[in-house]
Amino acid sequence: MIAELSFGVAAAVMVGFMVVSVLRLAIGPTAADRAVAMDTINTLVVTTMVLLGAAFGQVVLVDVAIVYALLSFISTLYIARYLEKGAR
Amino acid sequence: MSVWAALQVMTLVLIVVGAALAVRLKDLLAAVIALAAASLLLSLAFYLLQAPDVAIAEAGIGAALTTAIYVLAIRKTHRKEEE
Predict the structure, then answer these.
(1) DSSP states of A14-60 as a string?
(2) Which pLDDT tens digit goes with each residue over A31-51?
(3) Dihedral sign of CA atoms B5, A66, B38, A33 in order
(4) What are φ and ψ of residue A34, in 5° steps?
(5) How far apart are CA B15 and CA B77, in angstroms?
(6) To the nearest whole angstrom, how far is the Cα of A41 from the nearest Cα of chain B?
(7) How far is B48 from chain A (nearest CA, A)?
């Protein structure tokens, strides 16, 4: 009970960090700022999923976080390639 | 309000903010990034609703595939939206 609650509070803190990252996503002047903010949100979502998997006590939920970490890498890769090369 | 309800409410508010940004931004690359962030948070919302398989599908299609296709489309066309 106490362990579940502490994991839940930690996940809530991570979502609070996501609020700050979304703020940067909103006001970021350049596209690179926004890309870094999105990547930070990626990492925070993976962290939250692992924490919630620990809170719910199910190992299969951690696998979702692993797959998610692999897939979220691709979008950052494409945006970074566009920012490096431009339109060409 | 329990911790889980607070988590869901915060996640849903962030989804709405990301979707509004995706609509409002004039720089299309920034709009695509905001859409990707909203999609990521939607995946987290599915996860919080105890649907991990839907969360995996949303992560694969929404975060990875949609963003890649939109960035490829922006590369072929214009980046700024005309007024």
Answers:
(1) HHHHHHHHHHHHHH-SSHHHHHHHHHHHHHHHHHHHHHHHHHHT-TH
(2) 888 889 989 998 999 999 898
(3) positive
(4) -70, -35
(5) 27
(6) 7
(7) 8
- Which residue of chain A comes nearest to B54, CA vs CA? A64
Buried b (16+ CB within 10 A) or exposed e, A52-75: bbbbbeeeebeebbeebbebbeeb
Q: CA-nearest residue of chain A to B65?
A: A75
Our CA-based measurement puts residue B28 at a distance from the nearest CA of chain A, in whole angstroms, of: 10
User: For residue range B29-68, what is the model confidence (pLDDT) as tens digits?
Assistant: 889 989 988 988 898 899 888 888 888 888 888 878 888 8
- Beta carbons of B29 and A82 less than 8 Å apart: yes
Say whether the ipTM exceeds 0.95. Answer: no
Q: B19 pLDDT band (50/70/90 cuts)?
A: very high
Inter-chain touch A19–B14, beta carbons under 8 Å: yes
Residue contacts between A and B (CB atoms, under 8 Å) = 112
Give A79: exposed, middle or buried? Use CB within 10 Å, 0-12, 13-18, 19+.
buried
Which chain B positions have a beta carbon within 8 Å of A48's beta carbon? 44
